[in-house]
Amino acid sequence: MSEFGESIIKGLESAINEADKAVHHEISEVRRIRNKLEMGVPEFSKTFGLSQRTVEKWDKKDADLTGAVATLMKVIEKNPDAVINALQE
User: Fold this and answer.
1) Model confidence over 39-68: pLDDT tens digits?
2) Is 10 among the domain residues?
3) Rounded (5°) CA angle 21-66-84
4) Could you tell me if residue 57 is inside a domain?
5) Which CATH number goes with the domain that contains 58?
6) How far apart are CA 14 and CA 12, in angstroms?
């Protein structure tokens, strides 16, 4: 893995370690991020290594985002290419 990929992973791990409990967000936040990226559920799921069914549940507000997933969504929103690059390595 590249140095850049490793730094992304370390940053995510650090954020996840600090998120010790579930964070309740408006689940529609995931839909807003998908729409911003102009991605449907299948493309978003495949691109970011997520279960399509879970993304559908988030869209319908049938499931809560954990602290780790909320952190991942923030990173995807701010720098989707960094996540894509890290996952491809």
Assistant:
1) 999 999 999 999 999 999 888 877 777 888
2) yes
3) 130
4) yes
5) 1.10.260.40
6) 5
- The owner of tokens 């996840």 is 16
The length of the chain in residues reads 89
pTM over 0.70: no
69: nearest Cα among 34, 30, 42: 30
SS (H, E, C) the chain: CCHHHHHHHHHHHHHHHHCCCCCCCCCHHHHHHHHHCCCCHHHHHHHCCCCHHHHHHHHCCCCCCCHHHHHHHHHHHHCHHHHHHHHHC
